[in-house]
Amino acid sequence: MNSRAVLVTGASGGIGAAIAHAFATNGDRVMVHYAASQERAEATVAELPGAGHQLYGADLTDADQARALVEATVEQLGGVDVLVNNAGIAVPLHPILDCSYEQWQAGWQQIVAVNLIGPANVTYCAVQHMRDQGGRIINVGSRAAFRGMPTVPAYAATKAALQAFGQSLAVALGDRGIAVTAVAPGIVDAGMALPVLDGPAGESLRAQSPLGRVGTAEEVAEAVLYLASPQAEFASGTVLDLNGASYLR
Ligand SMILES: NC(=O)c1ccc[n+]([C@@H]2O[C@H](COP(=O)([O-])OP(=O)(O)OC[C@H]3O[C@@H](n4cnc5c(N)ncnc54)[C@H](OP(=O)(O)O)[C@@H]3O)[C@@H](O)[C@H]2O)c1
């Protein structure tokens, strides 16, 4: 397979960095996007195997910056064949019985902006380049879409919405050779889950799966790499559970 141009959002660390590494190992050229963590993103790029990888900082809650990220990818990588919408946040917490109305609104506004509107805008811009040549779009959703997240309801809601958004586009773009899919990981031993896994709740979180562990960023990355492959075209519209049988639907 020829080297593809791959845009991975939120690739400064955690799951996004593992996804970037998987594509680079596969021989693809990766645009490593970050928001605030420039140094970590520079370290991620420096560790990628292969050549031609790039780095770009953008706050994806800003529609102009989202468009600029896609344009920089097209310019620096020579196109955009694969888009992985990985950037996401699970804070601020806003438990409905234990937060103020202001905290409630802040939670919804910030999380919807990063987890849903940001990916929608990046996707719009990327599709303008894929529309005549085909491509792959993979959204990083979550088990929370099905299982809920009591202290961060906006997180679960945006992940369900992101997965449904992808399914709409799978139908809209199927005849263009653009396959759109999602992964729905359970808890992963990386990124945003590390503080809680290292805390007192860690044991019970690992026990949610009959495998007695949580997932790894590499397991998510390998699944994303498959969904981006030519062989996965007919998987378009799928939401792939990666949760060690901790939640069956
Ligand atoms: N870890 C888990 O257990 C788990 C489970 C299921 C799904 N997920 C999903 O996997 C994805 C990656 O999560 P992770 O665990 O690897 O967490 P992470 O390390 O915190 O990564 C989140 C990424 O999102 C970026 N980001 C945050 N705010 C942004 C903004 N305003 N604009 C653009 N990018 C922004 C961050 O960039 P900077 O650091 O540069 O600011 C970072 O690269 C998320 O979508 C998450 O919901 C994670």
From TrEMBL:
Gene3D superfamilies documented for this protein: NAD(P)-binding Rossmann-like Domain (3.40.50.720)
Pfam families named in the record: adh_short_C2
Keyword line: Oxidoreductase
Entry annotated with the keyword Oxidoreductase: yes
Keyword Oxidoreductase: yes
InterPro entries: NAD(P)-bd_dom_sf, Sc_DH/Rdtase_CS, SDR_fam
Family: Belongs to the short-chain dehydrogenases/reductases (SDR) family.
Protein name per its UniProtKB record: SDR family oxidoreductase
Lineage: Bacteria, Bacillati, Actinomycetota, Actinomycetes, Pseudonocardiales
